[in-house]
Amino acid sequence: MTEARRRFARYHPDFLLLAVDLLGTYVFAVEGAMTAIRANLDILGLLVLSFATALGGGIIRDMLIGAVPPNSIRDWRYGATALAGGGTVFFFYQFFQNVPQPLMITLDAAGLGLFAVAGAEKALEFGINPLIAVLMGGVTGVGGGTIRDVLLAQIPAVLRTDVYAAAALAGAIVVVVGIRIKLPRGLVMSVGAAACFVLRMVAVWQHWNLPRVIAH
Amino acid sequence: MTEARRRFARYHPDFLLLAVDLLGTYVFAVEGAMTAIRANLDILGLLVLSFATALGGGIIRDMLIGAVPPNSIRDWRYGATALAGGGTVFFFYQFFQNVPQPLMITLDAAGLGLFAVAGAEKALEFGINPLIAVLMGGVTGVGGGTIRDVLLAQIPAVLRTDVYAAAALAGAIVVVVGIRIKLPRGLVMSVGAAACFVLRMVAVWQHWNLPRVIAH
Amino acid sequence: MTEARRRFARYHPDFLLLAVDLLGTYVFAVEGAMTAIRANLDILGLLVLSFATALGGGIIRDMLIGAVPPNSIRDWRYGATALAGGGTVFFFYQFFQNVPQPLMITLDAAGLGLFAVAGAEKALEFGINPLIAVLMGGVTGVGGGTIRDVLLAQIPAVLRTDVYAAAALAGAIVVVVGIRIKLPRGLVMSVGAAACFVLRMVAVWQHWNLPRVIAH
CA-CA distance, B159 to B150, in Å (whole number)? Predict the structure, then answer.
């Protein structure tokens, strides 16, 4: 570990990064809880879906890259934030239901971008090769939503609709390429998250979908 | 590790604890096998469901807290007990079908209590924080049934019905709080398992359900 | 580690073994992609299903036996092969659709045999007991297909139809028994893979199914 890396490790996660990460966790937890209510789950099912949606992607990534126990198991603030997201929806469902759809989509896209770049960066730090690091960025972004849909016995939405996972992968590619050509880490991660965010928003706005093969 | 902990580690698992644990494994395996038959699975699907229902919760917990390889992968007696549970159902289905429902519910509640307190205690031993240790107790208790339901492409029953996971969490809370305030471990685990058991039985008897938000 | 084992470790995986392994990966990835197209997934869902079907079984095995990060996360060639399998199906679906069914079944049976014996052998190398090592062979062979089916919200085909997982387990048993009685590793693995392959092919040809209990 170089001196720079050691310093990074000592100060990491800094307050801003942690705050942004917990905000993303909260947003994803709220979405999991809203889905749970629509599926007629009870308070406990709601909390499980909040937890799984918010933290599932990061947990899968950490287990795959060997960062065990996963960050959100080791640090109680992640679990607490996820449960807080579920709890506020339980008590203030009326309020959350009236949040304008575009605002939710915007917050979700922001969370997606953050999770994707953080996931790719962490995979690289653990010595994972670039191809898989990109996939780990994608997994971090969409893994939670995938678990949520599997628990509801539905085909995961990310597998069939919209440019969602693709936006996460785009952000992760920016990070992996940028770090490989030794651009500053902070810059690379900001640009990657922005790329994911913009791609996702434009895709929603323009109704972009990925190509598919028609079976016959 | 203190002298007391070292001694605990040296003698653990003692014969009684192991016997009780394997009994819980057997009961859960039987339930998995009964579900498999109702879903028209063949002998192999039946054994898979026995194994997953009986050992899935503990395996998820062990992988999340970093106890790898999981206990039931390392110790052949767990796998053998789970397969024995499935095998006896396959050959004596008639008999198991005639076991009175209240007896099955009672045995299941006992297994749930045991798994929940054992899961929470193990998480604490591995240095997991109290909040997540409680959740790990819950995961140990209901994880196997959740995997079983996912494999059958159904929404896990624990997410939507009854006071089941809630009872597991209650037992885990007793353990985590009790150990934090340094009560004797054996006492704490017994009280926790009893609390889970009683809560579950009363909930079945009184048809308790958790509150839910009605979507509209 | 004995001198013999050390030598094995130094040369492993040799070129032939790697080539065969990647070929199996490619075949399973193609099957995952074909299923994705039939389920009307987009290009990304197709690649996810290719990756999960081809590598899911080995990833679960590696995580359970403590070989973390899993081989296919550490070595980019596995992920690249899986994505190549998905990509060629996307661009040449017409061609793959016209591949005769018996050829696909034959290739699949070959891949199954290879995965099963490789999985059992690796579990033994990691000090896993014989019973679980056999199950790990089965998991390696059918885990990917199980994940694929769960993602499509279907009951995994291996749980209810044909002699498929049973063939994988048979191959794994040959390996575990053979290595225990100290027969040459290469011989044991070849015979195990052949046993799995032949059993699977005969089962398809003769429409063999495993027994099941009829619920009433």
Answer: 12
- What pLDDT, on the 0 to 100 scale, is given for residue B1? 42
Domain that holds residue B112: 3-206
Residue A213 lies inside a defined structural domain of this protein: no
| A72 domain-assigned | yes
Unique residue bearing structure tokens 């590598």: C55
Q: Maximum Cα–Cα distance for chain B, whole Å?
A: 59
Is the CB of C180 inside 8 Å of chain B's CB atoms?
Answer: no
Of A82 and C214, more confident: A82
Whether pLDDT at A27 is above 90: yes
pLDDT higher at B54 or A208: B54
Average pLDDT over residues A190-203: 95
Q: Which residue has the higher pLDDT, A16 or A188?
A: A188
Spatial neighbors of C140 by CB under 8 A, at least 6 apart, are C57, C58, C60, C61, C115, C116, C118, C119, C120, C122, C168
Whether A159 contacts chain C with CB within 8 A: yes
Confirm whether C213 is domain-assigned: no
Query: Min CA distance, A52 vs chain B (Å)?
Result: 12
Asked if the Cβ–Cβ distance from B213 to A46 is below 8 Å, we say: yes
Contact state of C42 with A161 under an 8 Å Cβ cutoff:
yes
Assess if residue C215 is contained within a domain.
no
Answer whether residue C165 shows pLDDT above 70.
yes
**Pick from C187, C182, C173: nearest CA to C130:** C173
Closest CB from C38, C44, C63 relative to A63: C63
From the first residue on, what is the mean pLDDT of each consecutive set of 10 residues in chain B (216 residues)?
46 69 94 93 93 96 93 94 96 93 92 95 94 96 94 89 89 96 93 96 88 78
Largest Cα separation within chain A, whole Å, is 59
Q: How many CB atoms lie within 10 A of CB B15?
A: 8
Taking the C-alpha atoms of residue B45 and residue B39, their distance in angstroms, rounded to an integer, is: 10
Tell me, what's the ipTM? Answer: 0.84
Q: Closest CB to B212: pick one of A40, A80, A151.
A: A40
Q: Which residue has the tokens 């039946």?
A: B46
Cis peptide before C69 (omega within 30 of 0): yes
Q: How many domains does chain B have?
A: 1
What DSSP element (H or E) covers A122?
A: helix A101-125
With an 8 Å Cβ cutoff, is A187 touching chain B? no
DSSP assigned state of B126: T
Query: Could you say which of C43, C49, C68 has the minimum Cβ distance to residue A211?
Result: C43
Q: Are C121 and C173 in contact (CB under 8 A)?
A: no
Mean pLDDT of A75-95: 95
